[in-house]
Amino acid sequence: MMQSISSAQNPFIKQLQRLGESARERRKAQQALLEGIHLAQTCIDAGTAPQRCILAESAAAHVEIRALLARIDPQCVVQLPDALFGKLFELQAQVGIVLLIDIPAPRPALRDGCAVLLEDIQDPGNVGTILRTAAAAGVDTIYLSPACADCWSPKVLRAAMGAHFGINIVERANLPQVAGDFAGSVIATHLAAAVSLYSLDLTGPVAIVFGNEGQGVSADLLQQVDTRAIIPMSGRTESLNVGAAAAICLFERVRQLAVLQRR
Fold first, then answer.
1. Among residues of the chain, what percentage have pLDDT more than 90?
2. 3-state helix, strand, coil in the chain (%, to 5)
3. In this structure, how many other beta carbons lie within 10 angstroms of the beta carbon of residue 84?
């Protein structure tokens, strides 16, 4: 039976506000909010059952949302008046569906395969873009340092477009330890490197490190790296956006694997 809430003073509504606004609250509760039809579909397709489904009153008539509701336990659905829903979320009421989920526990640390290490990436759009790219490139696990943007914030979730459910995410990781324990090759992009990315063999177990937007990879983490590589650039730009750099590196690996399979 669907529940209805109309008061902004309801404790559940206040909980939703805190989860949407505070990374600390999300870490404390180990919960996150998935806003919109696409994220809700990706979550349910991945087999993740929501704790609550928050629905704007007008959204109940939407064809795709009705199909989603058919796959969700009616007892977890909470319907809000459009005005109240609009105060909580940036979605239009007509497509107003939000899932409250438990943040998945990360799997054990990876010692081979393909991993990405993010050190102090602070822009949520960059973190989300890298997550989306990594999932598309077949990365197994992504490790984020404590100073990275919160992986389960609404901005990162929107930028990642559902990639959270296709990749193992380890937040607040000790990156020098992860790099030191990794059994394969650990590579960091570095502007002062002499080795070209395109000269490296990326087909085996590999971990690729990307550093802070302004400072790059820290000295402590660089000490654990096997190879420092540069992405060759023919233009006058001094550096690339970290999301673009990640896409180039990860899909160079995809290209090399494809060539290897054709031999």
1. 88
2. 40, 20, 40
3. 18
